[in-house]
Each structure stands twice: as C-alpha cells, then as structure tokens.
Amino acid sequence: DAGVTQSPTHLIKTRGQHVTLRCSPISGHKSVSWYQQVLGQGPQFIFQYYEKEERGRGNFPDRFSARQFPNYSSELNVNALLLGDSALYLCASNQWTGENIQYFGAGTRLSVL
Amino acid sequence: GNSVTQMEGPVTLSEEAFLTINCTYTATGYPSLFWYVQYPGEGLQLLLKATKADDKGSNKGFEATYRKETTSFHLEKGSVQVSDSAVYFCALYQGAQKLVFGQGTRLTINP
Hints:
The structure holds two protein chains of two kinds.
Chain A (H helix, E strand, L loop, with lengths): L4 E3 L2 E4 L5 E6 L6 E7 L6 E7 L2 E5 L6 E5 L5 E5 L8 E8 L8 E2 L3 E5 L1
Parallel strand pairs in A: 2-11
Antiparallel strand pairs in A: 1-3, 3-8, 4-5, 4-9, 5-6, 7-8, 9-10, 9-11
Chain B lengths: L2 E4 L4 E4 L4 E3 L1 E4 L5 E7 L5 E7 L5 E4 L2 E4 L9 E3 L8 E8 L5 E3 L3 E6 L1
Parallel strand pairs in B: 2-12
Antiparallel strand pairs in B: 1-4, 3-9, 5-6, 5-10, 7-8, 8-9, 10-11, 10-12
C-alpha cells in the first residue's frame, strides 16, 4: 500500500505570493494533520482535519488555511508568503480511532525568496 | 502547555558504541510518548512508542522506557551502526491527533 504522498516535493516562491501544498493520506485513513518544520527545529502542529472538518489548529496566523476533500486528501494554503514561511511542510495521516499513531509523508520543502 | 525537551546535539559516536538520547516532557495527565526518526531527505518514521507509565517501547534495537516519576523517555541502543545516522525526535501525544515534538537530536555514526 502507498504511504502518505505529498506534492510538490520542492517549491520556490517569492514574498507575497500564494502557495498550495497537497497531501494524500494512506488508504483507509480519514484524518490528516499538517506540520511545519523549520530548519533545525522539531515539527510544529498547524492543522488537523477529520471527515472534512477542522478538528484542531495550532498557533499560526490566518494566512494559513487548509481543507479536506471527500476522498480525504487535503490541501494546505498559505497566503502573502513571508521569508519565515520557508520550511519543510509535513502531512500526516491516521485512522482517528484506535492507536494514536501518525504516519508522515516525505514533506514539501518550501523556499520563500 | 505540554512540551518536550531533548538533549542538544549533534551527537557523534563510533560504530558499536552505546547510545543514549535524553528526552523529558511536561504534560498534564498521562500522554503517550513516541520517538520518530528522520533520515536525510525523508519524512518522519515512527521508531517506537509507549502509552503508559513503565511501558517499554522497542524497535530495531532501540529502546525507551516511559518513566512517569522522572517525566522522561530516554532513547537507548546498545550498539549503533552507521545506518542509524539520522535526526531523532521525541514527541508526546496531546489529544486531537496533535503531536508535540522536541527540537530533534542529530546523530552521526562514524565507521
């Protein structure tokens, strides 16, 4: 079975632009979470979605938004990009019920110039 | 709020050396604890977990014991290999599917 897949792998944007990152969860997983990992730091929680509804939100500005589709895939959108948004964006999926194990994708590395 | 603190890296060891990476946490209640590993250019992989006090998680020769009295979850391995070179993250589960991570410890094993 395929793991969590994210696209694109790398992305270069300039300040003020908008970006959309995509994630497909493991088949059968209905929950998707997004994390931001700045170089040299641990991942920070951004959003969690289950059954197309936002179930949790981290301490990120309103420039960050996300949604989940009927097939449980998800998009993370960031508006008005800042240099500080440069990071590895990780998507994780899990089954929601049962074990609290999150499975991570390889991430999208975003560089803002 | 809940938080995780890891020993600062980087850590450099010779092959077959004993490894300890310290991790302590601050949390209300009884969180589940995890170690994730990140190899170069890859996402996070679950290495091991423990869900209650005195539980020992183990995988691929790595072990960690959930110590409630010291709020710790130190990672250990008896004999490291070059292939263990990676960044290791300690994390706790806070509920609502949200993981709280430590800052990570970069481990380099020299042959």
